[in-house]
Queue: 3 jobs
Job 1
Amino acid sequence: MRAEKMESTLKRYFGYSGFRPYQKDIIQKILERRDSLVIMATGSGKSLCYQLPPLILGKTAIVISPLISLMQDQVMALKQRGIRAEFLASAQTDPTVHKNAESGTFHVLFMTPEKACSIPGSFWSKLLKVGICLFAVDEAHCISEWGHDFRMEYKQLDKLRAILLDVPFVGLTATATKKVRMDIINSLKMRDPNVFIGSFDRKNLFYGVKSFIRNSQFMDEFVGEISKFVASSDSTIIYCTTIKDVEQIYKSLQEAGIKAGIYHGQMANSAREESHRIFIRDEVHVMVATIAFGMGIDKPNIRHVIHYGCPKSLESYYQESGRCGRDGIASVCWLYYNRGDFMKADFYCGEATGNQRRAIMDSLVAAQNYCLQTTCRRKFLLEYFGEKFESDKCGNCDNCTISKRECDMSREAFLLIACINSCRGHWGLNMPIDILRGSRSKRILDAKFDKLPLHGLGKDHSSNWWKALAYQLISYGYLMESVKDVYKTVSVSQKGAQFLSSSTPAHQPKLVLQVTNEMVDDEEHEGTSGKFGELKGLATFEYEGFSETEGQLYHMLLDERMKFARGIGTAPYAICGNETIKKIALIRPSTKARLANIDGVNQHFLTTYGDHFLQSIQHLSQALNLPLDGDASMQAAVVRKMQPVPNQQRKLTPAKYEAWKMWQEDGLSIEKVANFPSRSAPIKDQTVLEYLLGAAQEGFAIDWTRLCDEVGLTREMFSDIEAAITKVGSRDKLKPVKIESPEYISYAHIKVCLTLQDCGMSKEVIPPGNHNTLTADELPSKASEASMDTMHKCLIRGPCEVETSVDNIIASCCLENEVTTSIPFTVDLDMHPPGVHDEIFSLRKRQKIDEPEEESLIMQEATESSILDLLRNYDDGVPLSDVLKHFNGSREEYVVDLLSNLEGEFMIFKKNNMYRLM
Ligand SMILES: Nc1ncnc2c1ncn2[C@@H]1O[C@H](COP(=O)(O)OP(=O)(O)OP(=O)(O)O)[C@@H](O)[C@H]1O
């Protein structure tokens, strides 16, 4: 029951149809009153873990948060979800909040650590009487001196453990090393806590790096690119390392007529608050700021985060770039560095001494190495944070997607390594590079380096070219960089020494390296590296999948939302996210029930704005000549298309590639590929199909006509599947689509159909004709006849239907076994297509309704309350067909109407096509 309650509460207040990874488990443990430490990526949805329990239990959640602006944003957003939330801190101007808080009025009560520690004990005892369901410490790394944002006041929170004895303590953070983790557990005196460590991988973020020169040409191009982003309704943050840069970019944007916000530490508090406010409320779409901006900011639609200058550490880069794409939609993080940034050690070290100085230097070197990395950036980032990334290519960073030229640089590498060797590792990179470039500076003459035979042999390349080469040699282990205080020195490693010993001035072993951007710029002509280059943005994806008029409707609906937001002084995203508006623009629901079904629409939205939105949708659609209740199957396709373009060069696993090659290039059938004699063991036909569809998703060519022919998918069946998707309202899960499709449609057909849609293929590639499938009557009815072997074959070749066979098997088993809890079904469930396993169980549940019970012989009349009574008996929900069967005395349209009303009133909701009680 609790899982059901969790899901219905999630839909009711947040409008989401499912949990993100870990959320459910974490919440479950908190509900069991276990202390928990939650370490999950930025934007992964940690807040929900403390927001949901109070709604389920009806008791207050206390949340400690470091910043007042952050608490205010969260309170604003929660209120828009119909959640009673407030904050207690020095900035609270409403005197009633304290009283209401102690009498348990609020679901979520935010406090600064100072407030929590100084509030009188009587407050806690009163509130404890009505109930505190959890005590959460957000940004919990602030508790640790080892953390990067240590806050003294957080250390005092342990006092509260003795007061809130039986209240579960929950620590949440996006960054925590082992030391910090232990510190949080000890400081909060956690008792046997559950520690949840999620992946740090933000899959929807594209990471890219470019070098630049601060000149006016670069600035013009930079501003030009930013103006393209502004055309979309999403937001951009430009982070600068200095206030001077912030002001310069802000000025350039203004001169170009681009409205932007500005934020840095030297601005007055009120000016900063105003900047924060206009950005959050979408009054400006660009924010130019130092890193003082944005801690804990939860604006879901930030589509670009650009770093103008190398950040001081990878920890801060991860945090800042993590503010991008919090709604899970593909977003882009570009980092622009200038070689001068790497010399800023003194600037960052400030007054620091000893170990602290060393730590700052190490962080800066890590950030520098990230900039100069020529292999996968995501792998580098994750491994820096101690997470193993199995593949060498993520396919979603510049190094994995933008093909770079390579060439043999053995001669140049030889010169540089030999020169560094001659300097005996006592210098940084500048000295050997100056020697190679023939400098006659005083320090070179003093050291008599002008007498070296290498002096002047590297004149053909710029200093930056040589540095770019040096960093590749460092990353491949030929050279080593060491840091002494704030100074870096380079020396030759063992690998480099081996390279030298196997080389002569006339001949060196081949050494193929990448021609980096800096090298290209240098080759084209020195100094043009100020060129903006291709700032990969998403603006061009904006309307992919949208018709022009749908795009217009989307913008009109954004304006409607803005009007509401202004009217009540809140941020538009707090009303609902841009993605939800996109889905509304695509589906154009005509009823409250259809609107309620859209992901992101919660009960508060529906009751407060539902009627108005429905009216607007109707008027605007009419004016734009768009039909209502459009094709729901489009919504996921559009979102998918907004992901960065699949790259042809992305590698498939060898097994996938092999299968694709045999099928596509050698013309073998799926069955032949599966059973190819050279295989150590045959693989399943289904696996081969999965491989081929995976290859198609990666941009590999597929002969669709042949594939559809082989799996028995016809145009008519494609239309049937499309209709099923429309009925379901989503294509996220296969099972509901399968349930709504005619019986002869298999999971394989659905998968092929979805992949066709994803790849933007038209129906025309599918051969027309009858679907040539067996009917349910022609299917084998005994379990023994539906061997696994047959199942696989059926799955691929179409005519006989596995799922229906399973249905029949279960039906016959159920007839033989009165008790439906144990089904004698012995085949390996893992071998079923996704969903079949689930289906077995849902069918088992449904059997209770299907069985000809005495009750169903009495004609049941459908009313709202009799439907609610029915649903009350089934935790897993009831499909429409069973509801209709149950009320077989009532007209179908009448029952559907009643269901729609109940859905619109948020009394029931639909999940996986099953009606459930809220
Ligand atoms: N189950 C869900 N389905 C869809 N969206 C979700 C879900 N859970 C959370 N979100 C959304 O994801 C976004 C990020 O969530 P949240 O603010 O909780 O992240 P976080 O982990 O606390 O990040 P940070 O460490 O940066 O503060 C929010 O806009 C939130 O509404």
Job 2
Amino acid sequence: VHHAAAVGQGKGVLNDNKSINTDSYPGGYYLRDITKPMYSQSGGAIETYTAKNKMVSPGTLLTDSDNIWNDPAAVDAHVYAGKVYDYYYTKLGRNSFDDEGGTLKSTVHYRENYGNAGWTGTQMVYGDGDGSDKYAYLSGALDVVAHEITHGVTERTADLVYEGQSGALNESWSDVFGNLIENKSDPEWLCGEDITTPNIPGDALRSMSDPTKYGDPDHMRDYVDTTEDHGGVHTNSGIPNKAFYNFVTTSGVIRDNAAKVWYRALSQYLTSNSKFIDARNATIQAATDLFGAGSTEVNAVTNAWSNVGVG
Ligand SMILES: CCC(=O)Oc1c(C)cccc1C(=O)O
Ligand SMILES: [Zn+2]
């Protein structure tokens, strides 16, 4: 079938205008981005679907007749997935979640009153929020989209078991790349701030600079032993999140180098049952590989983990 890249227009969840890479066919346009290296190498693309509030995935590939798109949740899921692809490809040399140019599929309007987002094992899904005004459409935040796609990267690399300490590492690595890819200069290093009560500033799902602001621990002594939430994976992630914050804010450490250390640790050293001490060792080894023993980065990452009581 003849495909041709086209550029559409649409508004995102925060009512912001944005250009959208689409795929034209006789009679209209698919919400499919075929402009990335993944397409020429493997036929991979970025595709965005709707579940029409059912519990189906991927659901229906979105189409439009005039390339002016009026589903903000879909617009943001699509455009933000493209930004995440570009980051992994240009900054870290990774070709999509599987490093094989695999198609990035997003499904929006997933289920009813669903205040969650997730990685299903093959694709991203985004709810519309919890029915109250606590959340906007979950795909409306770049850090959320990057968080979900990073779950896919993690699954194809360290495959950290989503339980206990390895699960908290899984969550933290997603928050870390959500922050790195969103790359805002917000002082509090918030997660999901753009979709948490969008009309009230300053609230979010989590904080990486001060996890305790949202009731999450920032030191090993406060690790939460619980059966809730797979052993507190969204809570205990505060400890490795704070370690990353410590590392990146150490003078002499730049974000792109911190990203290389965290990515190398994930893809070369962490394994499915790694614990926090293993993450400390993995990031020290990765920093040593990349910048040498005794480097600013090695000293900074060592201190970063000691500061949160790991190692
Ligand atoms: C920052 C993104 C995030 O935390 O997404 C989730 C939400 C909003 C609810 C439940 C689970 C997740 C997740 O991806 O872990
Ligand atoms: Zn997550």
Job 3
Amino acid sequence: MEAAGEDEFMGGAELDLAQLAREEYSATNNGVPRPLSPRLPSLSPACKREGGSLHPAPLPYLSPKTPDPPAPNQEKEKEPDARGAAILICSTLPTKLDMASAVTISSVSAQAALVSKPRNHGSTSFSGLKASSSSISFESGTSFLGKTASLRASGTPRIVPKAKSGSQISPQASYKVAVLGAAGGIGQPLGLLIKMSPLVSELRLYDIANVKGVAADLSHCNTPAQVMDFTGPAELAECLKGVDVVVIPAGVPRKPGMTRDDLFNINAGIVKSLIEAVADNCPEAFIHIISNPVNSTVPIAAEILKQKGVYNPKKLFGVSTLDVVRANTFVAQKKNLSLIDVDVPVVGGHAGITILPLLSKTRPSVSFTDEETEQLTKRIQNAGTEVVEAKAGAGSATLSMAYAAARFVESSLRAMAGDPDVYECTYVQSELTELPFFASRVKLGKDGVESIISSDLEGVTEYEAKALEALKAELKASIEKGIEFAHKQQGAAASV
Ligand SMILES: NC(=O)c1ccc[n+]([C@@H]2O[C@H](COP(=O)([O-])OP(=O)(O)OC[C@H]3O[C@@H](n4cnc5c(N)ncnc54)[C@H](O)[C@@H]3O)[C@@H](O)[C@H]2O)c1
Ligand SMILES: O=C(O)C[C@H](O)C(=O)O
């Protein structure tokens, strides 16, 4: 990770970011912005245009390296509101501003995000920003880390008209995200990453225990999201009301020698009860399921939502992003490629051989020997076990999972905000194969899955075609196990 010195990107403490943002905006041509900065980074390097050019995400702080210049974005952006209506400036600021493009938010808009809530650990001002002035300026992206931030920030959000507010341009920090299982190994670092998102106004943390301390701790970070804690089933409904995204990493992790399916007996019940609460309190939210076995917990969730009459297949996601993150990393290492450039679609499911990286579809185009294909495929499929064994009984992947889950949250929020160019691999209800659920690349939109990308499955190699056939029996069994569990539970409830 490249470190940027303070002076390099801040131009000194007095740099007026809002002014620079206005200059940047005025540098656009008749409202058509210049191409997004080639320095824009991404927590979501895999979020691309279908054509394959990189599309930057607004979470810059984890960007490993400068990506290739993306295709020019010809979207017409709105004129900044003279009264200071929230605008999010992104993109092609000169190098100094790559580290800190500006966001301005009207005081009205900012205050809207400051509604006082019980147990609110957030500050009463905009996390130390100038909430009382008519316009707040703050550095976007890594700038939340402060002027001395050493992470290289390249991603900067762009002006995105938020769907909720019709023709008005709304502040970016306007989404509410709940994490269920927030005090756990994944939940804690995930909470931190979401707290750093410029798109989030409220971060609601729920767990059955130990969540107060996590919330108090996170709330000291001077970023916009207000942190709220909720403990135990009695507070779950309150946690969920009005949220835009619910992320569920609640449940037990593997120990060495276990399969993900060995977690079914405990985690199926946990997911069931949490989804019932989601159905009752925020049926419109995007639901991101991390709890294993994902191949079964997502079908369980679908059945529970159906039983409650609120199932929307476009908004229920099994988080398989970590498989993509790993595939990208391992391929980049093997082929000596820039990490940020590599994008490997991973399809199927999220366990053992059901994890199928389509190496032949790697972007940029790269060739593999048969031996490399075999070795990389196996490593990606066993990467979870690699971590479980290395942790030797202390759990499974938590940090890389939090990174992957934060990327998926960010992609979802960008899609909600109207970004027309968001793609992720995820395990969803699908007609791509004969299986009712299947992980593949999907295009995300403000209402969830906009389309499922079928092209990755076309023209695959013989190795991939065989692996695809081979995974189906296991994936089918896991799906059916989940559905059967949900039906039995319903039957049991009905007979009481
Ligand atoms: N999808 C993936 O790629 C992926 C990757 C890594 C881990 N996982 C899975 O994520 C899950 C969590 O892993 P972890 O390492 O964070 O485990 P963990 O044990 O560290 O944390 C789990 C948290 O869930 C909480 N919890 C338990 N029951 C709950 C309930 N009913 N309501 C709310 N919270 C509850 C626990 O109190 C704990 O804080 C595991 O099932 C693991 O297998 C999935
Ligand atoms: O391997 C596990 O049990 C956790 C997770 O599914 C992973 O892929 O790391």
